[in-house]
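Friendly challenge for the regulars: who can give me the structure tokens for this chain first? No prize, just bragging rights.
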Amino acid sequence: MVISDVHLGTSASNAKALDSYLKSIKPEILILNGDIIDIWQFKKKYWPASHMKIIKRIFTFLSKKTKVYYVPGNHDETVRRFVGTQLGNLSVQNKVVLELGGEKVWVFHGDAFDVTMQHSRWLAKLGAVGFDLLILLNSAVNFILLRLGKQRISFATRIKKSVKKAVSFVNSFEDTVAQIASDKGFSTVICGHIHQPADKLIQVKNGHVRYLNSGDWIENLTALEYNDGEWTLYKHCEEDFSPEEEEPDSAELFNVLKNELLEKNETLLKIDFESTLRYSGNR
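First reply, four minutes later:
Bragging rights claimed.
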């Protein structure tokens, strides 16, 4: 399964819904496709228990032999300095290439194809703050609507659909990603980044490419699942059944992971953590 754009550490993140979903699955492979923790807007004073549960849930998967790939995005780009790191079942990579059903699947976050990210990072960060405020306002409005027995509305979705430049950007992003994937010999490409869940065939020069986007866990609450040889786009609803499960014990989880890491990575014992931290701080 693939999830992206959770934005833990911000009030916009719907961590409770994600935790409900994660409790209901047992993936063999989990790909965290960027912007899992929002380091751009991270504040020490805001880290709710529901956000910590997501981290614990991921560690639970690791302890149960799930292979976890962390593909950093722009909001958690600090993690990119650890690309290539392998800790037990956890691997940090800029991209993931899978062979599924005889086809090559290319997974990456997608910010590399965002012109704003490449040339106006300050504008992108300002937009991120504005989007967070928009979601806060939207949450307040939806709270009132639900109390009145009416359906939720999405300000962000309505704005994207009504603004031609936003629609044009999404279409351009998808077409560009699909064409590059085709040029590299991939029949399927998976992204996140634009918070626009999708599963579509896109016409390219050499035929078609299946473009998938895992969406986000702010508004869309979506994930990509591969099971029995087929990709599906999962949409979480608040009414979805969430089986009762005992919360993972942090101490027990730590011991399980420690033993696993020591068993599979004996060389970790030789690492000088102080020099590593000094090196990271000087970069």
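Confidence is low (pLDDT under 50) at residues 115-127, 240-248, 264-279. The CA atoms of residues 197 and 215 lie 4 Å apart. Your move, everyone else.
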